Amino acid sequence: MSAGIVNALLEVKDLQVFFKGIKTITALSGISFSIGESETLALVGETGCGKSVVAHAIMRLLPSESRVKGIVKFRGKNLLELSEKEMIEIRGKEIGIIFQNPSLALNPVYSIGHQLAEPLHVHRKEKKERALSMAAGALKNMGFANATEYVRYYPSWCSGGMNQRFLIAASTMLDPALLIADEPGKGLDRKCMSELETELKKLKVEKKTALLLISHDLGFVKRLADRVAVMYAGEIVEIADSSSVFESPLHPYSKGLLNSLPEKGFIPIPGFSPSLSNPPSGCRFHPRCSLRKMHCTENHPDLTEINGRAVRCFLYH
Ligand SMILES: Nc1ncnc2c1ncn2[C@@H]1O[C@H](COP(=O)(O)OP(=O)(O)OP(=O)(O)O)[C@@H](O)[C@H]1O
């Protein structure tokens, strides 16, 4: 089954997120997927489709004006039912997160070494000096030749690429079983992207870290992901092995997304993503779909299993 796997490390079932305001925004309308140990699942889709909300909902980092429904099971525990104290234990220790912007995620007033050593000191009760030397060791493992120097650096002394790698080191100091990386390559140049890719691959092979990868860079996703979930307007419209999605996408939206790749000629999908406070009736993609039938304008398709993958489109029902 593509949407779910046996013995999943993380199992997300029917996740719904609403933001209250003048109009209620239904950011997620029933997202389900699972991730196995050392597996990389990528979430892809146009801006505003809800990828970051998935990451924040899993980590329970959404603002208080949001309402979350569904199940987020990690190692058998529903994270949505845990106390904040239990969640603090899970964050960083068992699930690491890399946010979009390293300069905001790293604290400018603490040295890199301090920020890497802190989780070891707090969660593993390591003495400060030992935690610092372990931090230097982690940087050395990441290929920083003069790691003992870097632990004394402050984020503002370093490039965006270096800070992003420090952030990965910080979020993996406690060897989390799952890493959530939300646009980890945003703003990085090609060299830094390639270093980031190497780092994430190393974590998978050497530490068996599972990865929930959120990225607009489909080339990056293709090289890293085992499975890919394509999101549109708060829903998963297709989920399958990476090679199936990239080589034979089924959903018209997945096809459109891949056609916007440079090697496919940058063909944009016509129209715009719908508002999540008032999505179209029927299939949410129908106003932009060249294959739509009358049926698609009135009925909402389910995510249907087909040959070991799942797709939300009447063409395959
Ligand atoms: N705190 C919030 N209050 C109200 N609406 C929100 C909030 N956070 C997110 N949203 C809405 O939820 C929807 C999904 O946002 P999200 O950031 O998850 O999109 P995304 O797919 O990650 O986009 P991008 O690729 O640009 O990061 C958007 O319509 C956004 O406006």
From TrEMBL:
ABC transporter domain residues: 12-258
Membrane topology: Peripheral membrane protein
Gene Ontology cellular component annotations, sorted alphabetically: plasma membrane
Compartments where found: Cell membrane
Keyword Nucleotide-binding appears in the UniProt entry: yes
InterPro entries: AAA+_ATPase (IPR003593), ABC_Ni/Peptide_Import (IPR050388), ABC_transporter-like_ATP-bd (IPR003439), Oligopep_ABC_C (IPR013563), P-loop_NTPase (IPR027417)
MF annotations from Gene Ontology: ABC-type nickel transporter activity; ATP binding; ATP hydrolysis activity
GO biological process: peptide transport
Record keyword Transport present: yes
Known EC number: 7.2.2.11
Subunit structure: The complex is composed of two ATP-binding proteins (NikD and NikE), two transmembrane proteins (NikB and NikC) and a solute-binding protein (NikA).
Name listed for the protein in its UniProt record: Nickel import system ATP-binding protein NikD
Species this chain originates from: Methanosarcina horonobensis HB-1 = JCM 15518
